[in-house]
Fold this sequence. Notes:
five-stranded mixed β-sheet, Papain-like_cys_pep_sf, hydrolase, protease, Ubiquitin-like protease family profile domain-containing protein
Amino acid sequence: MDAYLHILRKSQRYYSTVYGPRINILDSQFYSWLLNDWDRLMGSGADKPRRSWSMFKHQWSTEDLAVVRGLVPVGTKPWNEVDVVLIPCNLGRTHWALASVNLTTGSIYLMDPFRQEVPFRHRKTQLACLRYFLPSMLHALDFHGRRRRGDMTYTLQNKPFPLNIVSRDRVPQHDRGGNCGAHTLRLIEYLAANRDTFDWSENEMGTIREKMDVEVYCNSKDWSSS
């Protein structure tokens, strides 16, 4: 997962005419890290913070904010310089989906490639760590004050980002287990290239996975040294 994400960030640098310059692609650890912190602070399975937790007063360490400052992972930019952040999420520690965070509107869009309907309240619980922690981290970075004039269509508020579920008829679906990670990587690749029409099917996943394997192998020296 992370090896291919590294390749996509590298492609953003070298093929800027194809890949959007104002899109950040995060690694697979970011969601897991926030989820672990969320469970530690709020309790496992919480869909909202404890009353004692204050979103805009929470103290984040310099290491915590390194991602938002664009210092890690390699190839990203400070969040005040981008419009969209793509976050692969390992939901339930077993299933990959994609959270696309639109920073110009302050919204999260969840794209799930699995052909199974999940109650919205369950998704709110799974994405609570993003919905509450992201605006808190952006506030600590003075995100709104650092954005270029005209970039914002909203003012960062002391409330969680709303969660939107992208319709399943807009996201390629799979029935067999094991393909959710490859589907998620493909979604990231398309969105990073500013393509909003996803034109592959489950039957093509074998070829797509082979293509990804070859690219990871061909870039293995670069990946191992980064």
